[in-house]
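Give me the fold.
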Amino acid sequence: MRTERGGRNKARSLITFIGVSALAGALAAGLAIPFAGFAGVGSRAVVESVQDLPRELDVDPVAIRSRILASDGTLIATLYEQNRVPVPLSDISPIMQTAIVAIEDSRFYDHGALDLKGTLRAMIRNQTEGEVQQGGSSITQQYVKLSLVEKAKTAAERADATAVTYQRKLTELRYAIAIEDQLSKDEILERYLNLVNFGDGSYGVQAAAQHYFRTTAAKLTLPQAALLAGLVKNPTGYDPTNDLARSTARRDVVIRRMLELGVISLHQANQALRTPVIDLARVEPVPNGCANSRYPFYCDYVVSKLLENPALGATVKDRDHYLKTGGLTIRTSIDPRIQAAAQASIKEHSKRTDTAIAAITMVEPGTGVVKAMVQSKPYGNGRNHTNYNYNVEKSYAGGFGGFQNGSTMKAFTIAAALQKGFAMDYRINSPAQIDLSGKKFTTCTGWTRDRDYRPKNSTHSGDLTMVDAARFSTNTYFLQLSQRTGLCPIARIASRLGMYNAQTGGPLDQVVSMTLGVGYVTPLMLSNAYATFAARGKYCKPLLVVAVRDNGGRPIDTPGVECKQAIPRAVADGVNRVLSAVMMPGGTGGRLRFGTRDMGGKTGTIQQNLAVWFCGYTPNLAAAAVVADASIPYTNLMFRHTLDGVDIADPTGSGTAGPLWETAMQGALDGMPVKHFVTPPAKMIQGPASASSGQPNQSQPNQNQNQNQPNQNQPTPN
């Protein structure tokens, strides 16, 4: 029985030899493969399928990691499906080239697409062992296999590209012949070394050199090159971060093979064998995605913006794939110096263990460039961490959706009133409490009223000008002014300055208490709106992605600075003059003023102290800071809430959020030139005699207009 089995094996091996010889000659000549030569290799179907293959392999571009950079070019994050940085063969050390050829295909430069000796040896072993094994592939064939795997779009295609069958081997060989006709040996080796998996998430020799040794492919030494070359056969099994002993043994196999081939000397081999394989403490991880970024919340928002750009793909899925495989260089708006100043303020005035959250966004007037975005809770899922970005709207990944903005809304009432012709010295009798129950306020669609509304002041009352009322944040003044101005002009100006409901994406509600804060807005939204005043009425969309370039350095179309004159310059100049009074001694922001710069600002506190704000600006920079309860349902900051580890006893815009704004702005403005606001027209500063009245304007709109629903959520800000 044993003799009979042995005879069959010898016969099978002989048939295999004949078949391989015929295969090599036929394929190399590009001829039809005779079916008769494949009794021990395949079937007519296999032969015909190989004959039908195209003679050229359409190779897709390799997946290359993309980089997100700060405005100064420093790295914020890397995005990739495969961590790869392609380099030319001239930037790969000769010893690395020698090592990979020695262990994977020592006759690479001597044979064509097929190494007949290696293939015959592998196929005879496969026949002897009774099953198909890997082995015998030339570097060119391996490159073809890797390329087919890269091209695979479905699980079925990937399975076909890796199937352990003769049909796949024949397919690879047919393509390999075409590749050898198209490319030189050096070109094939370059592509192979940039494509192959070197384990632990490193694809291509450059990424592997950086990861394992913190060096470049050009500077790899013999023992380093031998380790990397050894990984190719089994990137996971020989990964030194998984099994150092097995990795060492595999590296030594490569070194001894190089000695056997005479490509290194005995002295070189002995030195290399005595060299420690790797210092695991120096293995450099390559973080993937925004979770590992220096600025994770900002990074997530940048990626969300990129996924909106049709220039990166027809669908969100296509754009996401391109972001992770296209080798893009993405330059963003964030200024590390200004970001550091904002982060220092968060560190000084809050703790991650606080029950309240703090957030700051800083924007450059006249460009919309977002310079900084910080918050007090670190990124993550653990205790005292969060995945919410408290600076941005809810429609984006991780966006929290903002908070009611309190009296920061009064700035838009000021702008609407000035544009409508009210002067800064316009006086209104503003009592400590006013009864607006049933009073009608015009809207863009009709009018609205609240049947039971008696708001109070938390600061000064009396016969006040617009400047006085802004300085003290007098509620009853601005409620009457908003009635006389109309809610529609306020809403339209707010909308033109980028204000909308950050929870729903819809417009801000036009309700009786609109001037005291309405809807949900974000620090990004509010700081950018106030930046419009600093830019003399020029509104710019918030800009986070400054430029995108493809792997070849070519620019990809992306929205740049996009600005428009949203309100007249003189109106913005007037708002700046009025809000400057807030920063003067006695004003609600007076304690926050520093230096000699021109500054404007506004406090905001919403109903039941659920959030407090300070938004302020100079001609150089605008920033909004918020301290809030971010739990759901929201609770009063005065009760069981802490900031900087201390109970918040008396939450106010100036005293609670203000210090965050002040410290951040001081650091950010350090070194910037001192600029000044433009003086508004004299008639805007001092108008005709005021129509001062002890009661709100009683003029009523057309009674045939539609009535809106009464306001059900009235904030009482300062």
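The CA atoms of residues 534 and 619 lie 5 Å apart.
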